[in-house]
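Subject: sequence -> structure tokens, single chain

Hey, anyone have a minute? Need the predicted structure for the following. Not urgent.
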Amino acid sequence: MGMSPFASDDDDGLMNEINMTPLVDVMLVLLIVFMVTIPVIRHAVKIDLPHASSQKEETKPAQVSVSIQADGTVLWDDKPVSSDDLRAKIAQAAQADPQPELHLNADRKVAYEKVAEVMSAAQSGGLTKIGFVTQPLSH
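Reply:
Had a minute. Here:
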């Protein structure tokens, strides 16, 4: 009848079984939540929509190629243009429907200032789609 701290007592023994009650409670709550939300998710208004026999025609916008050579010469579809002609062609292209995509090819040796001028002219002219054309690296 010693009061040793290592004495075994039936009340202080380790529990070697899993208490399933909290797990069952959580599963029942989840089941109720899903039972309530699934009908709400599937709720839809049934409408008899009209049928159309025509298909939507996908029109691809035209592409305009603007190139800047190493010496600063600007080419519009492979034809040299001046700064004023470039602005006029950009304004004319911006009026087209659908608006064409501007593909900008710049020589790697051209000053960034020249590229920025062409981009600024395109933006002020109203062209919204500008793409930069690059060459892939060859190993």
